[in-house]
Amino acid sequence: MSQAERHLNSLMRQLATQQHIELVHPFAELKTMGALVYVAECFGFRYAGVRLVGRHKVLHIHLVRDTEPWAQQRAATNAATFTQVGAGGPVPGMYLNSLTPVPEAQADVDVICALIKYDGLVEAGNRKQLLAMGWGSGALFLLMAVITGVYAVLLPLAVLMPALLFGALRVNTVRRAKLAGRLTAAGCAQVRDQAGRERYVRPVPFPA
Fold it and tell me: Which of 27, 138, 145, 163 could disulfide-link to 154, CB 3.0 to 4.6 Å?
């Protein structure tokens, strides 16, 4: 069984028994995750967001069952047509035995990947948190320098650590702006979720 089939087999088992799932493949490429989300949406689920877990910020992609009638109708049609997904059979929108999108599905997978990347950047680039960490680290090193008298080491750190964090925030902001442009061009709308985070959502219904 290929790696793609293992991913698909695991996905289909979860789709059959759960109302919401998380895709967690730490070493999988983003395009692989995007393809898995595309397949899940063909079977009645929808992308709902991401979270970064642990000190290594492992990406968890959240999917929920879509209760809209058109989504369930599409799921029923695909379930009847694609009966061997993950077991060597054809997969909607993908080349046989792979997670490589066919040309007709490539644009949708690209948008899904952009949504995942954007949401991941929002999670990683919490502005309030990074600003607090930047000013806090600078103040801490400055205080340690005054207390210990080790100015030669601690004063540069009091400047360097905030600069690094503010630089990371700037890079994050620039990357998000580029992705926002791509998502807007693809017809996605900017929204804020219940936690106040900025997100983009696709127009519905999605293509079958």
Answer: 145
